[in-house]
Structure formats: structure tokens, C-alpha cells
């Protein structure tokens, strides 16, 4: 069975796929969300709410992690002989 | 120039021709979603993708020699076999492109070479276990994995950005989408350009120009990189449209999640030793991005059509490859190889001519989906 299907590689691909492929977009979404806090219903909708310092910090951390992961991806390609 | 040199030159140009079809057939894998959401203008998208394919082709040359070596006995491979195999793969690639079906160029190449080898040396020349474990099993699993990852990512993204206005959502995710699409383009260059390098290197080995086990010479790497980049830049608008408009109506967040899933699955499997089809992964991801969003339009009959084409790719390219081998072998020698090359060129011209009326272009690639790859003309007639 093992010579027909490489189970060891398979589960690693699934784990990395889920963490990176779904995790990074989710992180990116948290960043977008932090920059764009939801509008309060009790205030006039004319002025969209701006993100506070914490929002900016959260967004910066999220985007930095995403960028670092992209750098990791490129290094994987390059180092792959 | 002896007859063998003529054959070798023909095989190399045909190999580069295949690489070119590989480029335009697969532009959509990386860029279809960015084009339909307006993250990048169509021509800019294909230019960026072409550049990254070019860079990617130079970055890594690991798979180059394994593609044919692990699947068929290389001492059964002659120049005529390589030529016939390439003929089978190009013709299948052109057929599926014309129909707007994102089928795997790698499978077309493998099918063509396997078919031609079987015609030349019988079924025992094919390493069946290699074919199943390296080609068929990954092909069956990879779209499912990519689809599940993309669906999960899409669900999370929409869940997390609830309440964010549609405008800021679109603005943010378009940027992210460009980044993830660039990763897929780069990965595509490292994967697919190498397959042609492998085949051309195999031809050089078969001819005795290179010793067995030699690495691809620099001019082979450079010309393959150039051919796939040029093909990507030409852009397979039919496939782009089928993927981006036909399969699922894509929004920017879905575009980003599907490309991220594709990039993650392609890169991790390259690293863990699975070679797989970029096309299958990209299609699975786009489908997953459709499934993961509540209320998204997913056209399952188009997905079915694509899966049928995937199942047909290996055998169909193999049959054409075998026919081409028998044709060339029947005529014999240099004349035989020249003959199938002439047939191939004529067929390519015919496909090109047929694709012009009406054509799918950067201008109409984003037109509303009306049930066919070719957008219906602006006139408002009945159904």
C-alpha cells in the first residue's frame, strides 16, 4: 500500500495546507477587520469609524505574519535545489 | 546537418511549442480570479504572471530529469517517441483550451509520452507503479485537499469580516489576492517549465548529445523559461473565463482564499515530494471558495465537465501519442518525424483560426456568463 500512496507526505500536505492555505487568509481577514471596525448603529452613518491604535497594531501584526509566510514560501521554492 | 540533427531540432522546437501551450493553458490557474474581480487589469495580470513564471523557471530545476525517467524506461525512448508524445500532448492541450476546459498540461505531457512509449516498446516499458503513485493518486487527492482548504479559508474570511463594509473589504482583499496569485505564478514556473526541460533533456540524452543522467544545459533552461513566459503572456482567455466566470462567480475575498489554498498545497507538496498538477489544484480551490461562501453561485455541471476532461486527459493524449508514433514509424526515418510535425502545425493553425470566430479576448473575458465560454455578442436576441 505504501508504495502506491505516500501517506506520510499526504498528512503533512493536509496540515500545512490547512494552516497556511486557510490560516493566512483568516489572519489577513482579521487585519482587514481591525482596520475597519464595524459602524455603530446609534451614530450617523455619514462618518465611517476609523481604527484606533490597537486596531492598527493588530492589523500590522497580522500583515507582518502574512508577509513573513510569503517570504518562507519563496525560500522553500528557492531552496528546493 | 544529418537527418538525426534535423529530427533533434524538430523535437526541441516542438518541445518549446508544448511549453508555450502549457503557458497559455495555465495562465488562468494563477490569474483567473484576479482578473474577474478587477484586482488586476487583464493585460497587466498576464504580464505579471509571465514575468513570475520566467523567474520561477530559473529558480529550481529539481524535477527536470525525473518526469520521464520515473514513468517509462528511458532506454526505450527514441527521438521519434518523444516527438510523438509531444504531438499527443499539444493536440490535447489545444483541444481543451479551445473548449475552455482547464485540463492538466502535465497529464497531457505524461499521457503523450506514455502512449508513444507503449506504441514503440509495449506496455512493459511503462513503470505502472510510478504512474499510479506519482501521477494518478496525487491527481485524485490534490483537488479535494485544495478545495477543502479553500472552503475553510473562505468560510473563515467571510465570518471574520462580517460587518466590514463591502468597499473596504474589496479594497483589502484585492491587495491580498494579488500577492497570493503571484505566489501561484511563481510556483507554476518552478513546476511546469521544468517538465518541458526534462523532456528536451531526455531527447538530448536519447540522441547521445548528453550522457545519461546529465543536468539540463543552461540554454534549455533559458529557452523553456522564455517559452512558458511567452505563452503565459499570450493568455489563455478561454480558460481564464471558464475558471473565473464559469465555475463560480468569484469575489475578491474568495479569490484570495482560493489562490492561497492553491499556493499552500502546491508548495507544500513540492516540498514533500508529490508532483501534482497546478491545474487540478487551482480548479479545486476555486470550487472550494464557491462552496465556502453562503449563497455563492457554483455551476456544478461545469465542474463535472472539467472532471470528465481530467479523466480523459491521460488516455486521450496517450492515444494521440501512440497514433503519432505509428504514423511516424510507418513512414519511417526523418520523413516520418517531419510528417507528424507538419500535421501538428496544420492542426495548431486550424485551432487558432477556429478560436478567432468569435474570439475570447482581454476585452470580453469578464462579460457575464451566458452558459458558454464564448461570450454572447451584445445584441439582445432571445434565449
Apparent shape of chain A: elongated
Please write the string of helix (H) and strand (E) elements of chain A. HH
Number of strands of chain A: 0
Query: Which protein chains make the most extensive interface, counting residues with beta carbons within 8 Å of the other chain's beta carbons?
Result: A-B, 39 and 52 residues
The proportion of strand residues of chain A reads: under 5%
Compute the gyration radius of chain B: what is it?
Answer: 20 Å
- Please, what is the oligomeric state? heterodimer
What does this structure look like?
The complex is a heterodimer of chains A (81) and B (383). By secondary structure, chain A is mainly alpha-helical. Chain A has one domain (7-79). Chain A is 69% helix and 0% strand. Chain A contains two helices and no strands. The longest helix of chain A is centred in the first third of the chain and has 29 residues, at 7-35. The radius of gyration of chain A is 19 Å and the shape is elongated. Chain A starts with 6 loop residues before the first helix and ends with a helix. The mean pLDDT of chain A is 79. Chain B is an all-alpha fold. Chain B has one domain. Helices cover 75% and strands 0% of the residues of chain B. Chain B has helices spanning 3-36, 42-59, 66-69, 79-99, 105-121, 128-160, 166-207, 218-234, 237-247, 252-271, 278-291, 300-331, 333-355. In chain B, helix 6 (128-160) runs antiparallel to helix 10 (252-271). The relative contact order of chain B is 0.21. Mean pLDDT of chain B is 86; it is low at 378-383. The interface between A and B is large, with 39 and 52 residues.
Amino acid at each position: 500500500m505504501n508504495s502506491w500512496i505516500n501517506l506520510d507526505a499526504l498528512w503533512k500536505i493536509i496540515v500545512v495546507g490547512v494552516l497556511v492555505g486557510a490560516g493566512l487568509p483568516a489572519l489577513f481577514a482579521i487585519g482587514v477587520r481591525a482596520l475597519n471596525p464595524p459602524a455603530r448603529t446609534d451614530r450617523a452613518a455619514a462618518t465611517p469609524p476609523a481604527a484606533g491604535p490597537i486596531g492598527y497594531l493588530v492589523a500590522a501584526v497580522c500583515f507582518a505574519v502574512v508577509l513573513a509566510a510569503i517570504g518562507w514560501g519563496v525560500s522553500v521554492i528557492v531552496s528546493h535545489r | 546537418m544529418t537527418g538525426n540533427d534535423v529530427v533533434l531540432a524538430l523535437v526541441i522546437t516542438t518541445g518549446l511549442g508544448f511549453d508555450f501551450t502549457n503557458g497559455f493553458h495555465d495562465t488562468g490557474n494563477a490569474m483567473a480570479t484576479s482578473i474577474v474581480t478587477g484586482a488586476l487589469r487583464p493585460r497587466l495580470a498576464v504580464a505579471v504572471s509571465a514575468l513570475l513564471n520566467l523567474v520561477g523557471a530559473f529558480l529550481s530545476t529539481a524535477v527536470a530529469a525525473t518526469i520521464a525517467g520515473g514513468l517509462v524506461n528511458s532506454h526505450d525512448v527514441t527521438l521519434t517517441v518523444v516527438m510523438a508524445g509531444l504531438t499527443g500532448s499539444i493536440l490535447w492541450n489545444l483541444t481543451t483550451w479551445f473548449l475552455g476546459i482547464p485540463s492538466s498540461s502535465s497529464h497531457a505531457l505524461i499521457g503523450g509520452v506514455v502512449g508513444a512509449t507503449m506504441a514503440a516498446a509495449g506496455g512493459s516499458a511503462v513503470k505502472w507503479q510510478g504512474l499510479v503513485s506519482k501521477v494518478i493518486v496525487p491527481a485524485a487527492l490534490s483537488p479535494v485537499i485544495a478545495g477543502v482548504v479553500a472552503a475553510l479559508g473562505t468560510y473563515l474570511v467571510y465570518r471574520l469580516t462580517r460587518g466590514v463594509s463591502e468597499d473596504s473589504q474589496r479594497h483589502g482583499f484585492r491587495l491580498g489576492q494579488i500577492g497570493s496569485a503571484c505566489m501561484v505564478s511563481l510556483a507554476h514556473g518552478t513546476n511546469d517549465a521544468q517538465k518541458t526541460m526534462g523532456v528536451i533533456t531526455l531527447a538530448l540524452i536519447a540522441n547521445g548529445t548528453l550522457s545519461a543522467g546529465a543536468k539540463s544545459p543552461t540554454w534549455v533552461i533559458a529557452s523553456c523559461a522564455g517559452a512558458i513566459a511567452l505563452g503565459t503572456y499570450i493568455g489563455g482567455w478561454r480558460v481564464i473565463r471558464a475558471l473565473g466566470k464559469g465555475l463560480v462567480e468569484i469575489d475578491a475575498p474568495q479569490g484570495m482564499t482560493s489562490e492561497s489554498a492553491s499556493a499552500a498545497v502546491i508548495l507544500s507538496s513540492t516540498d514533500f515530494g508529490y508532483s501534482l498538477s497546478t491545474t487540478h489544484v487551482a480548479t479545486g480551490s476555486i470550487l472550494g471558495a464557491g462552496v465556502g461562501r453562503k449563497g455563492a453561485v457554483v455551476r456544478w455541471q461545469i465542474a463535472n465537465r472539467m472532471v470528465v476532461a481530467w479523466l480523459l486527459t491521460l488516455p486521450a493524449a496517450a492515444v494521440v501519442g501512440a497514433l503519432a508514433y505509428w504514423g511516424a514509424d510507418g513512414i519511417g526515418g526523418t520523413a516520418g518525424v517531419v510528417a507528424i510535425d507538419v500535421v501538428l502545425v496544420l492542426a495548431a493553425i486550424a485551432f487558432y483560426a477556429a478560436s478567432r470566430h468569435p474570439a475570447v479576448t482581454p476585452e470580453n473575458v469578464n462579460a457575464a456568463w451566458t452558459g458558454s465560454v464564448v461570450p454572447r455578442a451584445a445584441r439582445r436576441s432571445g434565449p
